[in-house]
């Protein structure tokens, strides 16, 4: 069987969660400290530890077959690279911000202004789409400081909690894109290696589905079961087992995390009791 080559960030915000999701996929990695390449012990996978910003080039050149990377970096420098799964961590936005004290009436206020950013392509494309001309100052980090030191009138950078903007007296005025970690695929991947990739994707999808769902157990009087089944349809249909107490049953089902509290309220109203909610490690369909 062929080996699948995957790039993950060597150190930084994506590293820990990237390793975690591989582990949740049952993949254990032979990891020496400061190693730039490692092999999985129980899956045909080679892991390359790289800088996030360098990963798009490795994917385009086919040096690696796939990667866990921020969507924002793919938009910035990853033309033609496909996204296979959104992984639900490292969620952030790439936004334009101006000093808090400035009035902002719309994007046209940025005409001919100086904008500091580490994301020149994303910024340029966004401004072009809006028909705005501005001067870009490309810097690699600490972008939020630029307006305070007179280097720029506005900035474009990553925003998550907003605390870096707040500390630097800036306000977010335009969200250019939303981003999260994704599994990205090289267009140079061979059909043989794609077969290994499909196995990894299957495992990742099972982990993600499990993460988004909860296992629910409840007790209900038998005459309420039809109504409760409509609220909790489950994967195919719920499991119903008789309780030792006559006239009562236990129902087991799966529920989506997003609708969790709404469903629990409906279940209580419909007569469910003793509701237990448990995490699901993996969900294979
Ligand atoms: N504050 C944040 N909150 C959530 N996600 C973030 C945040 N900052 C960055 N990210 C996401 O994590 C990715 C990696 O960010 P990080 O700062 O660790 O690396 P980097 O400096 O961009 O890259 P390199 O590995 O090349 O040094 C970003 O591309 C973005 O997708
Ligand atoms: O909205 P917040 O939650 O404050 O997050 C946003 C900050 O996080 C990132 O910086 P990071 O800490 O990764 O530092 P870096 O510039 O050295 O990469 C980003 O560049 C912002 O500065
Ligand atoms: Mg950063």
From TrEMBL:
GO terms for biological process: L-histidine biosynthetic process. GO terms for molecular function: ATP binding; ATP phosphoribosyltransferase activity; magnesium ion binding. NCBIfam families: hisG, HisG_C-term. Residues 51-205 form the ATP phosphoribosyltransferase catalytic domain. The keyword Nuclease does not apply. GO terms for cellular component: cytoplasm. It is found in: Cytoplasm. Its EC number is 2.4.2.17. InterPro entries: ATP-PRT_HisG_long, ATP_PRibTrfase_cat, ATP_PRibTrfase_CS, ATP_PRibTrfase_HisG, HisG_C, N-reg_PII-like_a/b, N-reg_PII/ATP_PRibTrfase_C. Pathway: Amino-acid biosynthesis; L-histidine biosynthesis; L-histidine from 5-phospho-alpha-D-ribose 1-diphosphate: step 1/9. The lineage of its organism: Bacteria, Pseudomonadati, Bacteroidota, Flavobacteriia, Flavobacteriales. Feedback inhibited by histidine. Keywords: Amino-acid biosynthesis, ATP-binding, Cytoplasm, Glycosyltransferase, Histidine biosynthesis, Magnesium, Metal-binding, Nucleotide-binding, Transferase. It catalyses: 1-(5-phospho-beta-D-ribosyl)-ATP + diphosphate = 5-phospho-alpha-D-ribose 1-diphosphate + ATP. Its cofactor is Mg(2+). Residues 211-282 form the Histidine biosynthesis HisG C-terminal domain. This is ATP phosphoribosyltransferase. Its main location: cytoplasm. Catalyzes the condensation of ATP and 5-phosphoribose 1-diphosphate to form N'-(5'-phosphoribosyl)-ATP (PR-ATP). Has a crucial role in the pathway because the rate of histidine biosynthesis seems to be controlled primarily by regulation of HisG enzymatic activity. Belongs to the ATP phosphoribosyltransferase family. Long subfamily. It comes from Marinirhabdus gelatinilytica.
């Amino acid at each position: 069987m062929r080996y699948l080559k995957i790039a993950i960030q060597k150190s930084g915000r994506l590293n820990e969660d990237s390793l975690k999701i591989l582990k949740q996929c049952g993949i254990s990695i032979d990891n020496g400290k400061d190693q730039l390449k490692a092999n999985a012990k129980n899956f045909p996978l080679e892991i390359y530890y790289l800088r996030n910003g360098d990963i798009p080039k490795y994917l385009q050149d086919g040096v690696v077959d796939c990667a866990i990377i921020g969507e924002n970096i793919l938009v910035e420098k990853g033309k033609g690279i496909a996204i296979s799964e959104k992984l639900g961590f490292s969620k952030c936005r790439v936004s334009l911000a101006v000093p808090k004290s400035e009035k902002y009436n719309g994007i046209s206020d940025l005409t001919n202004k100086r904008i500091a950013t580490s994301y020149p392509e994303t910024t340029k494309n966004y401004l072009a789409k809006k028909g705005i001309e501005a001067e870009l100052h490309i810097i690699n980090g600490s972008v939020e400081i630029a307006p305070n030191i007179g280097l720029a009138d506005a900035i474009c950078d990553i925003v998550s909690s907003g605390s870096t903007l707040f500390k630097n007296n800036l306000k977010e005025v335009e969200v250019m894109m939303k981003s999260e970690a994704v599994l990205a695929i090289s267009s140079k991947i061979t059909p043989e290696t794609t077969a290994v990739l499909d196995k990894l994707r299957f495992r990742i999808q099972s982990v993600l589905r499990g993460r988004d769902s909860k296992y629910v157990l409840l007790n209900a009087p038998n005459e309420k079961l039809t109504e409760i089944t409509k609220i909790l349809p489950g994967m195919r249909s719920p499991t119903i087992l008789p309780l030792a107490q006559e006239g009562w049953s236990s129902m087991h089902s799966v529920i989506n995390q997003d609708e969790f509290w709404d469903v629990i309220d409906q279940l209580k109203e419909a007569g469910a009791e003793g509701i237990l909610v448990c995490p699901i490690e993996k969900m294979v369909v």
